[in-house]
Sequence to fold (187 residues):
Amino acid sequence: MRLVVLASGSGSNLQALIDAIHRDELPVQILAVGSDRPGTYALERSAAAGLETFVVDYRSFPDRAAWDAALLEAVLGFQPDYVLSSGFMRIVGADFIGAFPRRYLNTHPALLPAFPGAHGVRDALAYGVKVTGCTVMYADEGVDTGPIIAQRAIDVLPEDDETSLHERIKAAERELLIQVLRDLAAQ
Ligand code: GAR
Fold:
């Protein structure tokens, strides 16, 4: 499976993929890692792993459509089988989704459709749920609304804060993501 990964943040889930590939546990080739802004830790990790990186900085474009078109062109240039949003905190447009039908994957740190958006862990804690988790889904044009592929539940502990809960969710998220990618690669 030829994969392009898009990431905006620390890239810890991406690192788990890189490590699994290096251990020969995941039959995936990461063609490149892209970001919507320079200087992210995800880009640093990728460069350290010898991966090609690219930035399509949303601040360099006059509007959303122009940024979208540039991102699509950059990703298409790698001819990936799949694109993975791994903490990529930007919604892409219809053309991008249309170019990768059921080929653009996303993960989210909550049990969708509960708590979509940029603060899934914080929102679940604030609501007071006792169980939350993670979701791997096909991305669409909405905010965390695409068809669900797999989910895993995590208990919320009384002493949890956002950081501790997110860390436990991410541990499950990494396993789930690797499992989903393995299954898709085997199809
Ligand atoms: C992950 O938990 C991912 O699910 C979340 O961002 C984190 C990225 O962590 N994505 C969203 O909240 C999307 N709505 P990482 O950069 O350390 O891999």
Q: What stands out?
A: The longest strand covers residues 131-138. The CA atoms of residues 72 and 96 lie 6 Å apart.
